[in-house]
Amino acid sequence: MAWETLIQSVEQVVGAAGLVRDPELMHSYLTDWRNAYQGRAALVVRPATTEEVAAVVRLCHDAGVALVPQGGNTGLCGGSIPDSSGRQVVLSLTRMKRIREIDLANETITVEAGVILRQLQEAASQAGRLFPLSLGAEGSCTVGGNLATNAGGTAVLRYGNMRELTLGLEVVLPDGRVWHGLRGLRKDNTGYDLKHLFIGSEGTLGIITAAVLKLFPATHSTATAWVALPTPQAAVDLIGHVRSLCADRLTGFEMMSRQSLEFVLDHVAGCSDPLQGPHPWYALIELRDTVPDAPLDLLLESGLGHAFETGWVIDAVIASNQTQAAALWALREGISEAQNHEGPSLKHDISVPVSQIPAFIERTDSALQQAFPGVRIVSYGHMGDGNLHYNISKPLGHADAPFKAQEQAIMQVIYQMTSAFNGSISAEHGLGQAKPDAAAHFKDPLEIELMRAIKRTLDPTGLMNPGKVFATGLE
C-alpha cells in the first residue's frame, strides 16, 4: 500500500487544514489526557463534514488501513488512542461543530459529533430548554464520544444516559456508506432500532457524525444537600425515601467514602469539609423543579428530618445559594483529580443492582484488604443507578512500581466480585483497550459470540477501531 498516494488522496478531500502529519502537532491525538495510553499513527485526519468523513473512510477501506475515531479524547479506557504500529489513521471529529437544528415543538436538537458537551448545554439553555447530560469532562468531551461510550454522568437517575437521550443518528459505515437515521421520532416500530448498535460501540461499527437528541424543560429551582451517613446501606434506604417523597424532582444522588473526601480536601484548592468531624460515608443530593421558587429546601428538610429519626443520616447541610451548592459539587467532582496526586490510581467503573451496593462494598473491601493489606479504597459514584467508581490507591509509604505490578491481581478480585453480584465491569466508561480481555472472560460467551457476529456483519475487514471492545479483532 502506497502511503503517499493515500495521504495525497485524503488531502484532496479534507484540504491542508484537515490533515495533521507534524509529530509535535500529532502528539495530543496520540495520548490520552492522563498519559495512561500512548500510540502512533500514520496521520491524523480532521474532516469538516459528513461527506468528507465518508470519503476518507472509503479511501482507507479500499487501502486496507485501520481507522481510529476520536472526539474530545477524554476517555478513561484508551478507546480513542491508536496502537503502536504507526499504521493506523486517527480520524478526529472535532471540526464538525455545527448545531444543525433546534426543534422546540418536537423538543429536539440536532448536532454534529464534534460539538463539545458544554456548548450543547448552552445552546439548549439559550433556547429555554435543558440538555441534562452532565459530567466532569463536559468542557472538553464531544457529543460523538458521549454517544460512542453511552455516557452517563450525574443526572442519569432522572434523565437516563445517552441511549435514553438519543432519537436518531447519522453514521458513516465502515465501507463509506452513510446511514441517514436523523429522525426525531419517539415512536418508530419498523423493525430493529439500529441506533442502539452504534451507541456504546466505541467506534468499532461505524463513525457517528450527527445525532438528534432530546431536550427537556429548563429547571428553575434547585436544592442541594451534603449528608453524612453511617453506612452504604443507609444510602440505599435514604435514596428510596427521598425518591418516594420527591419523585422525579430527585435529579442527583451521589455517594462517596470518607477516603474519597480526604483526598479532595488534601489536594484540591479551595475545598473544605462542610461538616464538623469525619464521617464514614457521604451523599450529595440534588432536587430540581421547573417551577420558579419551588419549595425544594422544605421538601429536602422534611425528608432529611425523617432520615435523622431513623438513623440513616448523622449530619447534613443544605446549600443556601448557588455558590454553596457549587462548592458541594466540587467535592464530588474533584475526587478523580485528587486521587491522581496519591500515585497510580487503579480505576474500576462497575455497576451492580442498587440493592446490592452495600454487600458488594463490604465483601470487596474485605477481600482486597486481606489480599493487599493497606490499599486505600476510593469508592464513590452514582448511587441511583448502581454505578460505582471503585478505585484503588497504594498503601501509604509504598512505592509506585510494586503497587502497579499488582494491578491485574487487584482487578481480578474486583471483577470476580462484580460478577458474583451479577454486575457489569464497565458501567459508563466503555471497554476501550483496557477491558476487552476482561469482558471476554466475564461476559456470557453467547453475548460475545453475538457481538462478534454484529462486528463481522458491519465491519468484515476489521478496520474500525481494531483492538477496542474485542482484544483480538474478529478472531
Automatic annotation (TrEMBL):
Belongs to the FAD-binding oxidoreductase/transferase type 4 family. Transmembrane segments: none annotated. PANTHER family: BLL6224 PROTEIN, D-2-HYDROXYGLUTARATE DEHYDROGENASE, MITOCHONDRIAL. Keywords: FAD, Flavoprotein. This is Hydroxyacid dehydrogenase. It comes from Pseudomonas rhizophila. PROSITE patterns: FAD_PCMH (PS51387). Residues 37-218 form the FAD-binding PCMH-type domain. InterPro entries: FAD-bd_oxidored_4_C, FAD-bd_PCMH, FAD-bd_PCMH-like_sf, FAD-bd_PCMH_sub1, FAD-bd_PCMH_sub2, FAD-linked_Oxase-like_C, FAD-oxidored/transferase_4, Oxid_FAD_bind_N. It comes from the Bacteria. The keyword Amino-acid biosynthesis does not apply. Pfam families: FAD-oxidase_C (PF02913), FAD_binding_4 (PF01565).
